[in-house]
Amino acid sequence: MGGHAKTDAVNSGSKDAPTEAEFKKRDANWPVVLFYIHVYILGTYGIYVTFTSASWPTILFTALLTLLGMLGVTVGVHRLWAHRTFTATVPLRVFLMLCQTLAGQGTIYSRVQAHRLHHAKFQEDDDPYYSKQSFMYAQLHGNLLKYSRQQEQLLLTVDMSDMENDGIVMFQKRYYVLLYIGLNVLLPVNTPFQYFGETLGVSTFVGFWLRNLIVLNVGNLVNSAHFIWSIHKGFKPTDSNSIFFITKSFWPQFHYLLPYDYQSGEFGDYASGTGTTMIRIFAALDMAKNLRTVSSVAVRNGLTLAVETKRPIVECIEEQVKLEQNALPANHYLNREKFM
Ligand SMILES: [Zn+2]
Within a 10 A sphere around the Cβ of 16, how many other Cβ atoms? Predict the structure, then answer.
């Protein structure tokens, strides 16, 4: 009896100690859900307003802010901060931080932390954008949920020391609400209203809601694009691995293997997208330095080595990358045909 009583006590103790299911459960993040509902409804109406009422200055100004927001997500959060594919001078980091604030997706710090967990747990239960599920989960649903208790614990284990040593990232984290109001609300809404003779309604629908609809959806693609541009099991053999390994297209597999390559475009391209071009321009201006890349020769040699030695692919490719490090000139980004 005493033994049973003890077992019961342990079982009923689950009120305090959560079960595995409770530990992994993700609740809805209602403020975010409400925000997304508004973004979708009012942003869609913003499309109508753009074609019927907005003036050209408003449209061009909003388009510019939209592009800068995307740049903040792809070049800023993803390639510079999450994966350290290059180093940036202080002015460039300030610029990218301001761009990222325009994306309205939360702080650089929180996005980097979540993206690093996404890579560490890619296609596992603890991936915040649970990749085994569906495109819509990664693109939308996963963003509307709070982290599970397990994910919260895992987030604390993500190494963020480089972020904590980056004064610009920490400045944005500290003053995010003020920066958000200034850059993501006042600047895009007030400018058309004050200077382009727009009504407050048109300024709000186009400058805030429609812009957020576009930037949030494009920004979320960073975590969901692999559903669109990756190799799936149903691919014909002729379409698959050989092409991916030689050209490094089919971005996701290459990016999830070797995430530190600055040329990995977020949307399925390699070496030819806007983000890559912008990094090259920043490098030519001496604002971006130490651009990291992996040549196709290193990938091919690494693969051969992996087949011959049966060692892990990434280890073999990285060995080849080290071998060619001295052969790669510092300004390799100016000669991309030769060094891509
Ligand atoms: Zn990534």
Answer: 6
